[in-house]
């Protein structure tokens, strides 16, 4: 469709140029979406410390969503250990062509494959020098259990012949998966594939209306986003509401009988994390902080740098600690427009930021460790501004701007995140 405005002229490479005064109407004609994109980029400059989760997702991983309900896959890693369900009491092994085979039953037999080596750290094997018992998986029994042979079992002699014994292994002992051992002529090994787990969340439509003639200001063409106090208060109120929903929202879909439409509610990431750690804030020690770092950074293959968003009571307890060379407070770091306090441990680095949203939602003693590499925001409707001419419609003698976004947060690798539950007297 041809443009009727003679002030918009074609460029040499297919672009369009605006002649005369650049108005918002001309910008929409010449470059649809330009002002909306400007809004989405500039919103992160509005009090970023008040809404760290929302701030982080606007600067990090964002994906478009074609529907209000998004489906995604989260991938876990294979278990690294199992526990013995029945104690091994010295039952004689079975000779298999020179190898002595023993059957062990675990709570997760299926994580072990033929040719894998297995460490039993709590049991001492034979040999010199003595070390933890190491087993080699010969087969996995259809009746349940593993057929294994010890690599450093105890060698005994009976009637002039040597035979291998397996030492006593108590029930509950850990069996840790180690590397596979193949023969020279082996070409194939047991198949391995990680199957992702399907999950879903709802995008929630967040809205805020500001009744002022502000569209030109929101476009940010003269001095950026030149908010008045009222406008800035409206934006921060909207972001605070989104922050609470992103953290503690309940996923749901209901039919509003008055509006005759469905309403979608997003589920918060607090409930998506599978793990929690408890801290006694009244007697918090550096040892407790080491334990927190251990659980946050081990057993999940996540990043070595994670973010701890914490309520007031938890931040106070962390601030009272006397740090040593084991766990150090390394000053502050500004990233994504947020000022973090760094806590460095041998396990990894925590970026700590205070959030009053936790206080307002009844979690002043709690926190949430987030791996930013595995936090994704799905956006169905990008943050945008729509002008309502209420004067022309006869409603009010004002112009209004409605800010809208439909989005949700998901944890793509839930095990990389952990809830921190603080206890106080």
What would your notes on this structure say?
There is one protein chain. The protein contains 8 helices and 26 strands. It is α+β, with helices and mostly antiparallel strands and 425 residues long. It folds into 2 domains: 298 residues, phage-related protein like fold; 100 residues. The strands form 7 sheets. A 7-stranded antiparallel sheet has the order 5-13-8-9-10-7-6, with no helix packed on it. A 7-stranded mixed sheet has the order 18-26-23-19-22-21-20. A hairpin with a 5-residue loop joins strand 1 and strand 2. The longest helix has 20 residues.
Largest sheet: 7 strands, antiparallel
- What count of structural domains? 2
Content-based structural category: alpha+beta
In order across it, which strands form the biggest sheet?
Answer: 5-13-8-9-10-7-6
CATH class of the largest domain: Alpha Beta
Number of helices: 8
Helix content: 10-25%
**Alpha-carbon distance between the two ends:** 70 Å
Over all CA atoms, what is the radius of gyration?
30 Å
The proportion of strand residues reads 35-45%
Question: Which architecture of the largest domain would the CATH scheme give at its second level?
Answer: Alpha-Beta Complex
The average pLDDT value, as a whole number, equals 77
For this structure, the CATH topology of the largest domain is phage-related protein like fold
Shape: elongated
Low-confidence stretches: 11-15, 17-24, 30-40, 191-195, 213-218, 220-227
Number of strands: 26
